[in-house]
Design brief:
The protein has 286 residues and is mainly alpha-helical. The chain has 14 helices and 2 strands.
Length: 286
């Protein structure tokens, strides 16, 4: 760790000149600085935080997750994933009801009850074998269904990529994880560490592919994250009158060399690759 500590210190030092940016995040969101064409008005700050998160991930999270993957048997890791997903199913049911999707909410509640009772507190995913689909709704999606726009894209230290809307939901989301219900501090810390490391281990392959494929990792992750969140809010059917940010950028940067190119634009790299990557944790976030 002696070799990595100076790198982390350098990253923290790099964030200090931009620390004042946090004071204007709220005002920027309220004044509508983020638009469909430019959802990232905080890009200078975001890139500094992203670089810091990359250092922490490479120095701590990724090595620990790699060791965890190599040492812990796959069935045990799958059981841990199922356990944390089971708790998320209960929260998903609440959000589905808040969105007015009562049938889907009942389905997720039934998933939670089935896996809790018959699946050893969710360690075994019995509900999926019975054909009960996971919906995986969160409060950020609920706010989107209620009509709240995403606001500016923002990258938080350690937590990773988000939007103003998802950041508003974050304090509530942090209260519905299993560790918040544990009375023992030792158990709570163990659950938190297991959840973070297990999540990062599940993303090792995706992050390795991303490191090899993306020329600008920050831009790729931003576009993929925003597209994924937009798709989740609209259940995979976003309105056609909104132009995705990366497509707008492609139109601005490309010259109309031929009418055929203008009438049939090629999809961007991030749009084509986003479904294969989960950017929410690639930089060490949850």
């Amino acid at each position: 760790m002696n070799l990595t500590q100076p790198r982390i210190a350098d990253a923290v030092a790099g964030l200090r000149p931009a620390a004042a940016t946090l004071l204007i995040v709220g005002s920027m969101a309220l004044t509508g600085c983020a638009t469909t064409q430019n959802p990232d008005p905080l890009e200078p700050w975001n890139r500094k935080v992203f670089a810091f998160n990359e250092v922490v991930d490479n120095a701590v999270l990724k090595p620990v997750a790699t060791t965890y993957r190599d040492v812990v048997p796959a069935p045990v890791r799958k059981g841990a994933t199922n356990f944390f997903n089971n708790v998320q199913d209960a929260w998903s049911a609440v959000n589905l009801v808040l969105q007015g999707r009562f049938r889907d909410g009942a389905s997720d509640l039934l998933r939670f009850g089935t896996n809790t009772v018959f699946g050893l507190l969710g360690v075994i995913d019995v509900a999926s074998e019975l054909g009960l689909q996971r919906h995986n709704e969160d409060f950020g999606q609920t706010l989107g269904k209620w009509g709240l726009g995403p606001g500016a894209y923002i990258v938080w230290p350690i937590l990773g990529p988000s939007t103003i809307r998802d950041s508003i939901a974050l304090p509530i989301e942090t209260q519905v994880t299993p560790e918040t219900w544990a009375s023992s501090v030792r158990l709570r810390n163990s659950l938190t560490a297991t959840r973070i490391v297990n999540t990062r281990a599940n993303l090792l392959q995706a992050s390795s592919l991303l490191d090899d494929a993306a020329l600008d990792k920050y831009s790729f992750l931003r576009d993929a994250f925003l597209q994924r969140r937009r798709s989740l809010v609209y259940d995979g059917n976003p309105p056609e009158d909104e132009v995705p940010y990366d497509e707008y950028q492609d139109d601005e940067d490309s010259a109309p060399a031929a009418p055929a190119a203008a009438s049939a634009p090629l999809p961007s790299a991030s749009a084509a690759s986003a479904p294969a990557v989960d950017p929410a944790a690639s930089s060490g976030s949850k």
